Amino acid sequence: xxxxxxxxxxxxxxxxxxxxxxxxxxxxxxxxxxxxxxxxxxxxxxxxxxxxxxxxxxxxxxxxxxxxxxxxxxxxxxxxxxxxxxxxxxxxx
Length: 93
Fold this sequence. Notes:
- Helices cover about 45% and strands about 15% of the residues.
- It is of the alpha+beta class.
- It has one domain (about 5-90).
- Strands 1-2-3 form a three-stranded mixed sheet, with helices on one face.
């Protein structure tokens, strides 16, 4: 699987399982780019140490718990995805 295949599979899982999550998720911009833009982005990422270059590949979550649910699924499905949360963390204690 290439980066796009992993992201598409992650997006499909999110859409099918939205009821499991508490907050909003922003899907990566990468799948919406044309092939040339995707290739240019991948080349920039390979040659750069700037983490901001990866933003079009990120799934962005409102809640850490949602991100963890998603990343657990990705690990089980052997998907390579990037995710971050916006800082809303709820202590369950």
